[in-house]
């Protein structure tokens, strides 16, 4: 198999992470969060940022230790010394990439329908096709396209922040007021964690990053910090412009905030920016999903053809086609709220295993060079990954039984595929 080409530096990689993390989640879920928490919504975003930072620091240590594509698969496989456990986490990550891409593409179609009368499903499939072609052309072109998307997305959120902190408020706002108490804050925290998903996919382009052992940890930490600050500022600003009841009932909360602050033109502008935000999310999930398949194929857990690199573009072209085709299938199914919860559940399980992997690898591979180490350690034992693991387990238990069962079903299907595929390999040998 050919090797991927290293094109991405610190700026592009950070924009890659910021572009995905600041994607569709904040534009859709901030209204739902306001309905749970009232004025104290920023606390839920703060809690989400803390959990994301725990996971981000663990990813930073592991990517510096193993700068490989299919990152989660590689981390868990080495930590648990189990091909099966590594495969399940890789499988979970690949499936969630596909589901996120399909779901957000539908979101794009919904926004696009406000400009052109095209069926949402058609717009979604066209977007998946165009961005899959961009992914096929090369990581350098994809990274620059995503950088543009990310900057536009940041500009849109910057408008909200500017409006919020310049508007005159007639009555003082109590930012600790919450209609549902701590229960509402926790429910919103679990829900809005979808908005923090994205930075972990940076690890899956490790083989296309310049000086990955230094660049990856820095970019991951920068991404989590940048997005956390922006989310908290946006949540504070939104409440200053629209009261939490109006925000909670809105189908397009940030567009409504902009309309209230700037008039109809502001709402149209934010709707247009939302198109860039959703497109950015779709592009990076397609890229990451293809790299996961490529890395797992290189590791022997998936058919070797998925590891083929195109001679001209230097991209895993068969994996790109596979992710595109599977995403199109998911466009035709699923309630968007249920699907978002399935994704968050799967990501939380993955984060729990990543935090555990940091702890195990300190003992399984104690002598390996670690260009970056998670801070706060007692001897070899890292404290922060333990806290991160406990919090993610708590979060997983907050979901409805239906979501947990679907998540376990995805894991079960992965185990069946693994056993079947390995049996086929043995029969051919």
Layout: helices, strands, pairs:
Blueprint lengths: L9 H12 L2 H14 L3 H25 L5 H10 L2 H30 L7 H18 L1 H28 L14 H12 L19 H30 L2 H6 L3 H10 L1 H35 L18 H15 L4 H29 L12 E2 L2 E2 H14 L4 H28 L1
Description:
By secondary structure, the protein is mainly alpha-helical. The chain has a single domain (10-428), classed as Amino acid/polyamine transporter I (Up-down Bundle), CATH 1.20.1740. Helices cover 74% and strands 1% of the residues. The chain is built from 16 helices and 2 strands. The chain has helices spanning 10-21, 24-37, 41-65, 71-80, 83-112, 120-137, 139-166, 181-192, 212-241, 244-249, 253-262, 264-298, 317-331, 336-364, 383-396, 401-428, and strands at residues 377-378, 381-382. A hairpin with a 2-residue loop joins strand 1 (377-378) and strand 2 (381-382). The protein is globular, with a radius of gyration of 21 Å.
